[in-house]
Design goal:
By secondary structure, the protein is α+β, with helices and mostly antiparallel strands. The chain contains 6 helices and 7 strands, in the order βββαβαββααααβ. The longest helix has 15 residues, at 122-136. 23% of the residues are buried.
């Protein structure tokens, strides 16, 4: 069962069986039950997008396989990988539940701090920059998030904006330099 959810971004948001998925705007679901190959193609999961440490699932008869990121990612990674961490079929309980289930969802990732720092007073610049660096643990990680080598999750974006708020800035109009909708491989279950 699916329903279209209005979306202002370049993707269409579809709710299927309680799971929210984003698809390119031109995507039109062909059936009420999603086809796994069609789902992967429209989510645009490439094997290189799947983190090497992400648990994969290959259980062919799991009732939740079309809604589970571990299975969808396993299908994508299966084309190029020959080993890695995986969920065993014994994880599936008799009632069809799996403690490793991860819903397929996208998040709005961000990178680039220039627009944030362009809005601060000169006397606050060094302090705010140091606090953001400390949030990420090192100068090199700060620059990786700034360049887009790493992407900020929505939670990390809020943590960065909280640093500016604590310094007295109204962040309602603050924006990061770049945004992209990506598959959430790191979020909560």
């Amino acid at each position: 069962d699916f329903r279209l959810v209005p979306s202002a971004s370049f993707v269409s948001v579809v709710e299927m069986s309680g799971i929210i998925c984003s698809f390119p705007r031109l995507f039109v679901p062909l059936a009420l039950k999603p086809n796994l190959d069609l789902l992967m193609e429209n989510l645009n999961i490439r094997p290189e997008d799947v983190p090497a440490s992400f648990l994969l699932c290959f259980h062919p008869s799991c009732p939740r396989r079309t809604d589970c990121l571990r299975h969808v990612a396993g299908e994508a990674a299966d084309r190029v990988r020959d080993h890695g961490a995986s969920v065993f079929p014994s994880a599936l309980t008799a009632d069809g539940q799996c403690r490793f289930f991860r819903p397929v969802r996208t998040i709005r990732s961000a990178w680039g701090f220039r627009p944030l720092f362009d809005r601060v007073r000169h006397e606050d610049y060094a302090l705010l920059r140091m606090q953001v660096m400390l949030l990420f643990g090192s100068r090199s990680r700060f620059f990786r998030y700034n360049r887009g080598d790493y992407r900020l999750t929505p939670e990390q974006q809020e943590q960065v904006l909280d640093i500016f708020r604590r310094q007295g800035y109204d962040t309602a109009e603050f924006r990061f330099e770049y945004y992209e909708d990506v598959i959430d491989f790191v979020g909560e279950r």
